[in-house]
Design brief:
The protein is α+β, with helices and mostly antiparallel strands and 420 residues long. Helices cover 30% and strands 29% of the residues. The protein has twelve helices and 23 strands. Bound molecules: adenosine-5'-triphosphate and magnesium ion. Adenosine-5'-triphosphate binds at residues 106, 137, 139, 148-149, 152, 154, 257-260, 292-294, 296-297. Residues 106, 137, 139, 148-149, 152, 154, 257-260, 292-294, 296-297 line the site of adenosine-5'-triphosphate (ATP).
Length: 420
């Protein structure tokens, strides 16, 4: 039985819709401002998102690692990024007997020096390495719930290529992988590849911006071309040529940056000593790129977009469970046994099901079920036991149907084509 409880009211200091809903539904817990813990339901959603991203990163040929969050100041001094005036969101700490340590806000320094032990020749390239790891950022604003937190999981992939051409080939494939990820979590249509500032080697970086009122960014998007310009480069006339869009075809909207990809060039490899021997026997720096996605920000954006006045409405691919089995047995033994047995059979069939067997009012159960946002609700009351026809409600559409017990047991993940 779930230990988490739903709540009628959100904490009074919480302004963002995603945090209000996720806290009320018992998905997350607010530790302090901008710092949230994940509870069983929330962790299931987050892990489903991570699972989709991991699949796509593996398809790209990425190899998963897990770097440390404690960071060696020397590497950051070498890259020129240790000072607080260079990176203003640092969290730093100290060793007991002396020197300072950093808490990772990104991992370019660590991965670049690590890879120098493994890349020596052009035969070792290209390589793609990624991880899901915590980042710490002392963000000044923390008003967007889990969309901007001071401690968060990032998927960061780093590419190591021999030259610009090899880099660009991968960069394009990575872009397509990102597009697949956003489609798989149902925000593909409203997510735009966006030209933004922040490129160190190329003039622009690419952001993936999802149209969302709660987003902190403003973009100008071309719906047909599926491209956008971030407001920060809107007045830069070059960007229209580079992006291949016309100012007059663009619409302004609020958006949230769910991913960001950078051409790092040889910026880090040169200073941190990541060189390889090319075919002519010369020592040259490795050409790098970095590719980030914030799974929790993605979850927050999805909660903002897919929700209504009753609560959350999860897309199937990331819902914590496929089916919410709601028993209205009360003190009726017959109904309770029927529901218990059905639950066990569903689990045996491999259906992902959350069982509400609490002895509380039906109204309270339905309110909670709406708030939790699991795609399908199955209701077991007197009717189901008497007629063997079971009520199933689609959370997104509100559509109600009565189906047989066999149809319920066919609701396994692979059976979704029956569209119930
Ligand atoms: P922003 O512009 O929103 O501050 P950023 O450009 O600093 O983000 P990156 O360093 O490129 O972000 O990080 C990669 C991804 O990590 C972002 O696209 C976003 O999805 C996620 N992310 C960044 N900062 C946060 C945060 N504070 N909380 C949650 N997710 C974040
Ligand atoms: Mg950004």
């Amino acid at each position: 039985m779930l230990f988490t409880k739903t709540r009628r009211e959100a904490p009074s200091d919480e302004q963002s819709k995603n945090a209000v809903l996720l806290i009320r539904a018992g998905y997350i817990h607010k530790e302090i401002a901008g710092v949230y813990s994940y509870l069983p339901l929330g962790l299931r959603v987050l892990n489903n998102i991570i699972g989709i991203i991991r699949e796509e990163m593996n398809t790209l040929g990425g190899q998963e690692v897990f770097l440390t969050t404690l960071q060696d100041p020397n590497k950051w001094k070498t890259s020129g990024r240790w000072d607080d005036d260079v990176i203003d969101i640092w969290f730093k700490t100290k060793l007991k007997n002396g020197g300072p340590l950093g808490l990772a806000n990104t991992h370019e320094e660590a991965i670049t020096s690590l890879m120098s032990e493994h890349i020596a020749s052009y035969k070792d390239l290209p390589r793609y390495v990624y991880q899901f790891q915590n980042k710490f950022r002392n963000e000044t604003r923390a008003k967007s719930g889990i969309m901007r937190t001071r401690e968060f999981i990032m998927k960061d992939l780093y590419s190591f290529s021999a030259d610009k051409a090899q880099h660009e080939e991968f960069y394009e494939r990575a872009t397509q992988a990102y597009e697949r990820i956003f489609s798989r979590v149902d925000i593909g249509e409203r997510t735009y590849r966006t030209f933004a500032s922040g490129g160190s080697f190329s003039k622009y970086s690419h952001e993936f911006q999802t149209l969302c009122d709660a987003g902190e960014d403003t973009i100008f998007f071309d719906k047909e071309k599926k491209l956008a310009i971030n407001k920060e480069v809107y007045n830069d006339e070059d960007v229209y040529k580079t992006a291949g869009v016309h100012k007059e075809n663009l619409n302004e909207a609020r958006a949230a940056e769910v991913g960001n990809i950078f051409n790092l060039g040889t910026k880090f490899s040169e200073v941190l000593g990541l060189h390889y021997t090319n075919e002519r026997g010369e020592q040259v720096p490795v050409y790098m790129g970095s590719y980030g996605i914030g799974p929790a920000r993605l979850m927050g954006v999805i909660a903002e977009i897919f929700s209504d006045d009753k609560g959350l409405v999860w897309p199937e691919a990331i819902a914590p469970f496929d089916v919410h089995l709601v028993s209205l047995a009360g003190n009726n033994e017959r109904i309770r046994e029927y529901a218990d047995l059905l639950y066990e059979e569903m689990v045996t069939k491999g259906i992902s099901v959350l069982y509400d067997d609490r002895n509380v009012r039906a109204g309270e159960k339905f309110t909670d079920s709406d708030l939790l946002g699991i795609p399908r609700r199955i209701i077991i009351g007197k009717d189901a036991v008497d007629t063997e026809m079971i009520e199933i409600v689609n959370r997104a559409t509100g559509e109600t149907m009565r189906i047989t017990r066999e149809a319920v047991l066919a609701l396994a993940r692979d059976d979704k084509k029956n569209n119930l």
